[in-house]
Amino acid sequence: MSLIKTRGMEKSYKTGAGETFVLRRIDLDIEQGDFITIMGPSGAGKSTLLSILGMLDGDWRGEYWLVDEPVHAMKPRARIELNKEYMGFVFQQYHLLDDLTVYENLEIPLSYRNVRRKERQAMVADTLDRFQIVGKKDLFPTQLSGGQQQLVAVARAVIAEPKVILADEPTGSLHSSQGRMIMDLLKQLNREGTTIIQVTHNESYAAYGDRIINLRDGWLVDDE
């Protein structure tokens, strides 16, 4: 059974000239434990595809099945619940909340999932330890380097143990040693069973995946 299956997935915008397609007839099968890299030139539809798979974007046509759940037939509230249960996100710009400490940033996804306070404290403590950022827990994001901020962002993405991590250019703002550190971390999570779907322009980071999907002008042109 595929973890993710899409059939005929399309997204378009109405324009003065008619209809502009961002994605065309995307058929994908992703298994639990895959590490997928999505590549392609700017404007190819990579981030759009990631947003739809992560259920952040509900405005598309076609079929999308997540663990046999028909996402295409769900109401928005049900999609939100499925997103919370299955998905973790890592973005290029970190998306940490600047007025919260590292500890509080990590706690946020757990509060969305109604995890009890004592359990939350234990999970945050474990995650701080695992990512070796215990000493940073009372600092605010602006007091951290770019690499440290992205480390916290990855920690926040995995704290609730999602089945899938969607990473949109996760190393885009980092210098090479920090980038490799983040990629090594994603690879380790993948070895432990987490499915990773990343968007990147970087060939060497793309090679961390076991499958490369190429998009061009919204079409899936290559699935290696």
Task: Give a brief description.
This protein is α/β, with parallel strands linked by helices and 224 residues long. It is 34% helix and 29% strand. It is built from 7 helices and 10 strands.
Q: Please state roughly what percent of the residues sit in beta strands, choosing from under 5%, 5-15%, 15-25%, 25-35%, 35-45% or over 45%.
A: 25-35%
| Order of strands across the main sheet | 6-7-8-3-9-10
Give the beta-strand count: 10
CATH architecture: 3-Layer(aba) Sandwich
The first-level CATH class is given as Alpha Beta
Description:
With 224 residues, the chain is α/β, with parallel strands linked by helices. The protein has one domain (4-223): P-loop containing nucleotide triphosphate hydrolases (Rossmann fold), CATH 3.40.50. 34% of the residues lie in helices and 29% in strands. The chain has helices at residues 46-53, 76-86, 102-112, 117-130, 146-158, 176-191, 203-206; strands at residues 4-15, 18-30, 35-39, 61-66, 69-70, 87-91, 164-168, 195-199, 211-216, 219-223. Strands 6-7-8-3-9-10 form a six-stranded mixed β-sheet, with helices on both faces. It has a four-stranded antiparallel β-sheet with strand order 2-1-4-5. Strand 4 (61-66) and strand 5 (69-70) form a beta hairpin. Helix 3 (102-112) runs parallel beside helix 5 (146-158). The longest helix has 16 residues, at 176-191. The radius of gyration is 18 Å and the shape is globular. The model has no long low-confidence stretch (mean pLDDT 92).
